[in-house]
Design goal:
This protein is an all-alpha fold. It is built from 13 helices and no strands. α2 crosses α12, α2 crosses α13 and α3 packs across α10. The longest helix has 59 residues. The protein starts with a helix and ends in a 7-residue tail after the last helix. 31% of the residues are buried.
Length: 277
C-alpha cells in the first residue's frame, strides 16, 4: 500500500537525531567554567590590589629622591650666589653694600629690557662703587646716567638715575644708611618686607619677587621662595609645584634655596629646561 506523505514525514522525524541534548551539554560546561572563574575572582582582585598598592608605594618613594637629585643637579650646574660673578662675596653675610646691590639688581632686571643688558648695567653700577651708599649719594644725576649708558641701559637711564637718587635718600632718612633695617622694621615678616620694598621707586611686584629670590640667603625669613615665573620651570625640570617639598629637598637651607632659585632663573632665561626634563 502506498504511504501517505504525512506518514513519510512522521517516520523521517522519528529517525532524525535530536539536537536539543548537545545544546544542554554546552550550556552546562559554560556554566561550570563561569563558576570556576567566579571562584577565583576575589583572590585575583586582592592580588591585583596588593600589587597596585606596592607599586604606588614604590613610586612614592622613588618620587621623593628624584626631587632632591634634580635640585642638586640644578644647583651643581647653574646654582651660584647672586651677583657673585660681579665681585660680591657669596657668603651669607648681610652687609649694607650687598643688600643695596641686590636692590639695584631687582630694580634693573625687573624692567622690560634684556637680561644681559640689565646684568651688565648692574655690573657697571658696582664697578662705580654705587653699592657704597656714600658714593651713590655724592654721585650726580648725570654721572648716574653715564654709568647706566655704559652698561647699555639707555632706554630707561633717566628714570633709573632718578630712582637711584631717591633710593639713596630713602636709605639715609628711613633706614640710617642700612637697608637691612627693612627686615627689622618688618619684624622679619615676608609680607611686610614686600610692602616696604615697594616703597622704593622703580621696584614693583616683579622687582620684589627678584629681590626675595636673591636675598633669601642673607634674609632667611624670606625662604623658601621661588620667583613665580620660575615655578613653571621647576615643574618642567621635575621638581614639581610644591614649594614645601622643594624646600625639604634642599634641606631647608636658605643658601641652597637661593642657589636653586638662581639656577631656575638661568634655565628659564636661557631656555635649558630640556637638560633636566
Amino acid at each position: 500500500m502506498a504511504r501517505t506523505r504525512a506518514q513519510g514525514r512522521q517516520e523521517t522525524n522519528k529517525g532524525s537525531p535530536t539536537t536539543a541534548q548537545p545544546s544542554k551539554t554546552v550550556s552546562k560546561k559554560r556554566a561550570r567554567s563561569e563558576d570556576h572563574r567566579n571562584d577565583k575572582t576575589p583572590n585575583d582582585k586582592e592580588a591585583k590590589s596588593s600589587a597596585a598598592k606596592k607599586q604606588k608605594s614604590a613610586a612614592a618613594d622613588v618620587e621623593k629622591q628624584p626631587i632632591k637629585d634634580r635640585a642638586d643637579a640644578l644647583i651643581s650646574k647653574y646654582g651660584v650666589a647672586p651677583l657673585s660673578d660681579l665681585g660680591l662675596p657669596g657668603s651669607p653675610s648681610s652687609d649694607a653694600e650687598k643688600v643695596l646691590a641686590l636692590v639695584f639688581n631687582a630694580m634693573l632686571t625687573s624692567a622690560r629690557i634684556s637680561h644681559e643688558l640689565a646684568h651688565k648695567s648692574v655690573k657697571c653700577l658696582i664697578e662705580a662703587n654705587y653699592q657704597d651708599l656714600e658714593t651713590l649719594s655724592k654721585s650726580t644725576w648725570q654721572a648716574k646716567t653715564e654709568v647706566l649708558t655704559e652698561g647699555g641701559y639707555t632706554r630707561y637711564r633717566e628714570k633709573i638715575a632718578t630712582a637711584l637718587e631717591e633710593l639713596a635718600e630713602l636709605a639715609q632718612e628711613k633706614y640710617d644708611g642700612d637697608l637691612n633695617k627693612i627686615l627689622k622694621k618688618a619684624d622679619s615678616q615676608p609680607d611686610k618686607v614686600r610692602a616696604l620694598l615697594k616703597e622704593i621707586k622703580g621696584i614693583g611686584n616683579v622687582g620684589v619677587d627678584i629681590f626675595c629670590d636673591t636675598a633669601q640667603g642673607i634674609w632667611p625669613s624670606l625662604a623658601p621662595f621661588i620667583d613665580p615665573r620660575s615655578m613653571k620651570t621647576a615643574e618642567q625640570c621635575g621638581l614639581g609645584s610644591d614649594l614645601d617639598a622643594i624646600w625639604e629637598a634642599v634641606g631647608k637651607d636658605p643658601q641652597k634655596m637661593t642657589k636653586l632659585a638662581a639656577a631656575l632663573t638661568t634655565v628659564r632665561l636661557d631656555k635649558k629646561e630640556r637638560e633636566f626634563a
